[in-house]
Amino acid sequence: MIMSLKKIITICSLLFCLLLGVILVSLSFGAAKVGGVQVLRVLINHAIYSGSPAGPEGLIILSVRLPRILLAGLVGAALAVAGCSFQALLRNPLADPYILGVSSGSALGAVSAILVGLSATSFGMPLASFCGAVVTIMLVFHVGKVGRGLHTNTLLLAGVIISAFFSAIIMFLISIVQNEDLSKIVFWLMGDFSFSNYHFILIILPYIAGGIAVIYSYSRGFNLMAMGEETAVQLGIDVERLKKMAYIFASLITAAAVSVCGLIGFVGLIIPHAVRMLFGPDHRLLIPASALMGASFLIGSDTIARTIAAPTELPVGAVTATFGAPFFIYLLKKRRV
Amino acid sequence: MSNIDVKEIFFRYADQWVIEDLSFQVGGGEFWGIIGPNGSGKTTLLKVLYGLFTPQRGEVFIDGGELRRMKRSDIARKIAVVPQEHQINFPFTSIEVVLMGRSPYLGRLQFERRDDFEIAERAMELTNTLHFSRRPINELSGGERQRIIIARALAQEPEIILFDEPTANLDISHQVEFYELITRLNREKKLTILTVSHDINLASEYCRKILLLKGGRIFKMGSPREVVAEEYISHVYESRVLVDENPITGAPRITLLPRDTSNVGMPETEGK
C-alpha cells in the first residue's frame, strides 16, 4: 500500500463518520432512553439557538452525556496516539502508554490527593495526578539519559524500576486507607469518567491536540525509527531529537489523559495494533487513524460501562480490559506481533 | 563522484581506543574493501565514516567538508549505508522500505512525489526486486531482504555506499551475485564503494584497494596483490594461511590451513 495524502484523508473521513455515529448512539443510551431523532433535535436546537437546553432530555444529553462522551473521546485519542509513539520509540509493538511509568506516577499523585482530602475539590485529583506524572516523566528521562542521548533500553528499565517503586508506595498508602477512600482509589485505578465536565475538556484539549500535532509532525521519522535507530540515522533523521520529542510529548498527552479519568488500560495497546492490521504500519496514517479509532473505542466502552449494569456503573477500565485482553490473545495467536 | 579524506582519527567508546590514528584517502569512484580480524575496528570505522560516531580526535572530510558539521539529511544524500543486520519488526512492504531512501530529500510533512516513485522503482529494477515490491519485508528471505536494503540505498541517490559485511548471511551464489551487482554500480554509476568484509577471497577478487586493520590501526593498505600476502594475513589473523592465485582471474587467493598439519598430506609432499 502506498501512502498518499488522498488515502489518508479518505480513510480518516470514514473513521470520523464512524466516530460521529458512535457519539450519536452513545448519546441516546443511558438510564433514561432518548431516541436517536430526539438526540439530533436537541443537538440541532442547541447549535442554532445556543440557549439553555430545553426539557429534561436536553439537560441529560447536553450537560451529562455529551461532556462525558467528548472527554472519553479525547482520552481515547490521546492514549492511542501515545501507544503508537511508544511502540515506535521502543521499536516494540507490545509497548503501551504506561510502559515508562507515567501511570504509576499519576496514580501516586491521585492516591495522595484522595488521602489528604483533595478529592473533595474537582481539580485536586487531576492536578495532583498530573504533577505526579510530570515528576515521573522527568525522573525516567534523567535516568534513561546516557551522555547526551536517550538510550531506549535504559529508558525502559528506568520506567520499570520507578514504576515498581511508586507502586510499592501506593500499596503502602492503600493499606492504611479508610474504607470510603478505598473505593475511590479502586475506581481511579481502573479508570472512571463519572466526574466528567466541560472544564476538564477545555483544560486537557490544548495539551492533547498540541501533543498529537507535534507527534504527527514526526510521523515519517517514526517509520524510519521502526527500521532501527542506526538505519534512521543513515537515512538522515536526527534520531536523538526524535526520541526526546516522542518521549516527552507521548508522556505528556498520557499524563493529561490519565489525570482526568484514571488509568484506562488496553486502549493504547490494541488500537495501534488493530489499525496496523487494517491499514498497514505507515505512521502518517497510523497516528490519525489510531486517534479516531481510539476515540470511538473508548466512547463505546464507556457507554457499556455506564449502561450494562445500570444503575450501578462499572469502571471503564474493566470494560476495555474485557474486550482488550481476548483481542490481544487473538493477535498473539494469529501472528507474530 | 565523492571522495573521503580521513585525517588522523581516534575513536573510543570507553577507555580503550578502538580506532587509533587512522588516515587514508578514498578517491571518487574507487572500490575499497576493509578487512581485519574481529575487534579490529572495521565496523566502528564504518560508523565513524557516516557520522554515527564522531571521532574524539581527527576529522573525516567528505568532498572537503567536515563530516561533523554536516546535517544528517545532507550526509544521507551523499552516503548510503547497507548495514549488516536488518531485522525489521513492522510489516512494511518492500516498496515502502525502498521509498524510505527518499526521506533525506523530503520535508517533514511532505509525501513522496512521482519522481520519488520512479527513482525507487529504478532502484528495484537494478537490484532485481521489483517483482516482490508489494510483499512485506519481514516475510522475505535473507538474500531478498538484502537486495531491498541495497535498493533503498540506491534510492538515496548517494555518491558513496558503505557496506557492513554484506555477504555474511548469503550462500555462495548470492555472494557472487552481490559482488557482481556492486561492481556494476561502481563502474556504471561511478559510486564510491567501501565494504567491510570477512571474506578475504571475495574482497581480493572484487575490490580495487584493500585496507587491512589490526587493533584499530592500519596494518597495510594498497592493491589486493600488495595486501593479501601470506606474511601479512597470517600475522594479522594469527592463523596459518596459504596464498596463491586464483587460476582463472589471477587475484590473490587464500587457503586456510589447520594449525597442525604434520599428519595431513601436505601439497608439496604429495607430488614426491
Q: In total, how many beta strands of chain A?
A: 2
Class computed from helices, strands and strand pairing of chain A: mainly alpha
- Oligomeric state as shown: heterodimer
Q: Report the average pLDDT across residues of chain B.
A: 90
Helicity of chain A, as a percent range: over 70%
Number of domains of chain B: 1
- The named CATH superfamily of chain A: ABC transporter involved in vitamin B12 uptake, BtuC
Helix/sheet category of chain B: alpha/beta
Description:
- The complex is a heterodimer of chains A (337) and B (272).
- By secondary structure, chain A is mostly helical.
- Chain A has one domain (5-334): ABC transporter involved in vitamin B12 uptake, BtuC (Orthogonal Bundle).
- Chain A contains 14 helices and two strands, in the order αααααββααααααααα.
- Chain A has helices at residues 5-28, 36-49, 55-89, 102-115, 124-144, 152-175, 179-190, 198-217, 219-226, 229-234, 239-261, 267-279, 283-307, 316-334; strands at residues 145-146, 149-150.
- Chain A has a two-stranded antiparallel ribbon with strand order 1-2.
- In chain A, a hairpin with a 2-residue loop joins strand 1 and strand 2.
- The longest helix of chain A has 35 residues, at 55-89.
- Chain B is of the alpha/beta class and 272 residues long.
- In chain B, 32% of the residues lie in helices and 25% in strands.
- Chain B has a six-stranded mixed sheet, sandwiched between helices. In chain B, strands 2-1-4-5 form a four-stranded antiparallel sheet, with helices on one face. A two-stranded antiparallel sheet of chain B has the order 11-12.
- In chain B, helix 4 crosses helix 5.
- The radius of gyration of chain B is 20 Å and the shape is globular.
- At the A-B interface, helix 9 and helix 10 of A face helix 2, strand 6 and helix 3 of B.
List the helices and strands and how they pair.
The complex is a heterodimer of chains A (337) and B (272).
Chain A (H helix, E strand, L loop, with lengths): L4 H24 L7 H14 L5 H35 L12 H14 L8 H21 E2 L2 E2 L1 H24 L3 H12 L7 H20 L1 H8 L2 H6 L4 H23 L5 H13 L3 H25 L8 H19 L3
Antiparallel strand pairs in A: 1-2
Helix pairs in contact in A: 1-2, 1-3, 1-13, 2-3, 3-8, 3-11, 3-12, 3-13, 4-5, 4-6, 4-7, 4-11, 5-6, 5-11, 8-11, 12-13, 13-14
Chain B lengths: L3 E9 L4 E10 L4 E5 L6 H8 L7 E6 L2 E2 L5 H7 E4 L11 H6 L14 H13 L15 H14 L4 E5 L7 H17 L3 E5 L3 H7 L2 E6 L2 E6 L1 H4 L2 H8 L3 E5 L6 E5 L10 H4 L2
Parallel strand pairs in B: 3-8, 3-9, 6-7, 7-8
Antiparallel strand pairs in B: 1-2, 1-4, 4-5, 9-10, 11-12
Helix pairs in contact in B: 4-5
